[in-house]
Amino acid sequence: MEQLGVESKFYRGDAKRQLHREIELMRGIYGLQPVVVVDEAHLLDREMLEEIRFLLNFKMDAQSPMALILVGQSELWDRLNKQIYAAIRQRIDLQCKLPHYDRAQTGEYIQRHLAYAGAERAIFTDGAVDEIFRYSSGSARLINKVCTHCLLYGAQNRHQIIDDHMVKRVIAGELA
Questions:
Q1: CA–CA separation, 80 and 115 (whole Å)
Q2: CA–CA separation, 49 vs 68, rounded Å?
Q3: How far, in Å, CA of 102 to CA of 134, rounded?
């Protein structure tokens, strides 16, 4: 409610009705389609997931009052697959999952990010990429983490190239 610029009512039921009114105003008067993005949704507790179900249930038969985007780690889908969350799962129209990269894709991912950052040459050796892939299993989040730690280690020690020995040292010393 605060992000809509409205002071929320104290009681939950009143606040829910107030939110529905605001959504109707946005749609009817202003012609806007509200979009709610919940980042780190894998951290939501059961009560908050029920609130999301409530939001999705509003006038569900007639129209979709808003778009809801849940962004989270793979644990989110694992949770939603439980029977207790079937009502929420059934209301999901579209799901996108980022798969883990294979070894070649991991190397391309690292190179692409280095290029975005302005690197004009390779910084990680093939052996380093092998170790990064072995550690991360192709998870973008873990690739980013180990690369960041390796780049910091390399900069602190004035290394121009990150090799497999440095990656192993960083993983054992900082990430294990």
A1: 37
A2: 12
A3: 10
CB–CB of 66/19 below 8 Å? Answer: no
Helices (DSSP H) in 117-139: which residue ranges?
A: 126-136
Task: List, for residues 42-91, the tens digit of each pLDDT value.
Answer: 999 988 888 777 776 665 555 667 778 888 888 888 888 999 888 888 87
Judged against a pLDDT cut of 60, whether residue 10 lies above it is answered with yes
Residue with tokens 């990430």: 175
Vertex 96: Cα angle to 59 and 57 (nearest 5): 15
**59 SS3 class:** coil
H or E, element range at 168: helix 164-170
- Closest of 37, 40, 117 to residue 75, by C-alpha: 40
| Integer Cα distance of 174 and 83 in angstroms | 39
Does residue 28 contact residue 22 with C-beta atoms inside 8 Å?
no
Tokens of 62: 């007639």
Summarize the confidence of residues 138-152 as an average pLDDT: 95
118: tokens are 């302005």
pLDDT-based confidence at 128, cuts 50/70/90? very high
Q: Tokens 């029920």 map to which residue?
A: 50
Q: Which two tokens stand for residue 120?
A: 């004009």
What number of other Cβ atoms are within 10 A of residue 156's Cβ? 8
